[in-house]
Automatic annotation (TrEMBL):
EC number(s) on file: 2.1.1.222, 2.1.1.64
Protein name: Class I SAM-dependent methyltransferase
Entry keyword annotation includes Transmembrane helix: no
Leader peptide range in chain numbering: none
Natural source organism: Streptomyces milbemycinicus
One function term, GO molecular function aspect: 2-polyprenyl-6-hydroxyphenol methylase activity
Length: 282
């Protein structure tokens, strides 16, 4: 948990509907990489902690007998449930609205626990220790994120890049220079140093894997708008009565950056850290 900041229910309020379209996907071979690294055979149980609208949990569901997604935001849980049915996996997925700090919540024992760019919002020492107790001996905790500081030039691609710097500046003009997060502020951003937290909890590792990205993507004006509204620091509710004005300014900025309505972008690589519970530990 970030010092001086208190979690509240509005952190991702209203963002769920924008996630699938706005967020860039994980690298295409993530599921294959985890299947090989964890020797998954379709028989285990997965808990995805901070699952959001189920993007990660749904993409890994074929590797497990049962998948539980946990998130405190009702919109996220509802969206995940809606996505499970057309994917044909509603019968093996369960979506639980709860904070990670409320675990174990009677959910049983798991083979794998995943955190897809969610762990930094939690009481990390408490959650890491609790998850360790929910894993079977030899089970794995998997921390997943986009690979940071990766050059992703769009040189040679047909459209201009997404104007992220200008978009961020527009958000600051409306919401102020200090990053918003729910009803609070994060002047120093979210914390890192996950390795120390997992080590303190008694996990061994990590094993690091990088799933290559770099694939050419085409993004639209609507994709870029959805990306902004999918973020905690620019969630729709934060703009209040000025939301329509903000979106109009954002779309004007995007039209100026690419009159064709198309942007080029490269798929981020995905970084995976696998931590293990001792197989001899009872």
């Amino acid at each position: 948990m970030v010092a001086g900041w208190t979690w509240d229910d509005t952190l991702f309020s209203g963002t769920a509907a924008y996630y699938q379209r706005g967020r860039l996907p994980y690298a295409p071979r993530l599921a294959d990489t985890l299947a090989d690294a964890l020797q998954l055979d379709g028989r285990g149980r997965l808990i995805d902690v901070g699952c959001g609208p189920g993007i990660l949990a749904l993409s890994l569901a074929q590797l497990f007998h049962e998948v539980v997604g946990l998130d405190p935001d009702s919109g996220m849980i509802d969206e995940a449930g809606r996505e499970a049915a057309p994917a044909g996996i509603a019968d093996k997925t369960r979506w639980v609205r709860a904070r990670a700090e409320e675990l174990p919540a009677g959910l049983g024992t798991f083979t794998v626990a995943t955190f897809g760019q969610s762990f930094h919002w939690m009481d990390r020492d408490l959650v890491a220790a609790t998850i360790k107790g929910m894993l079977r001996p030899g089970g794995a905790l998997v921390h997943i994120s986009d690979l940071k500081n990766e050059p992703r030039t769009v040189d040679g691609l047909p459209h201009p890049p997404v104007p992220y710097a200008a978009m961020d500046e527009l958000v600051r003009r409306y919401l102020g220079p200090v990053r918003r997060a729910g009803q609070g502020l994060l002047p120093q951003g979210t914390p890192g140093g996950e390795a120390a937290v997992f080590a303190r909890a008694g996990f061994s590792g990590p094993q690091r894997h990088v799933v290559p990205g770099g694939q050419a993507l085409v993004r639209t004006w609507d994709d870029a708008v959805a990306g902004v509204f999918s973020m905690s620091y620019s969630a729709p509710h934060l703009f209040g009565s000025r939301r329509d004005d903000f979106e109009a300014d954002l779309r004007r900025l995007l039209r100026e950056a690419s009159p064709s309505g198309r942007f080029s972008e490269r798929q981020p690589s995905t970084e995976v850290f696998v931590w293990w519970r001792d197989p001899t530990e009872l």
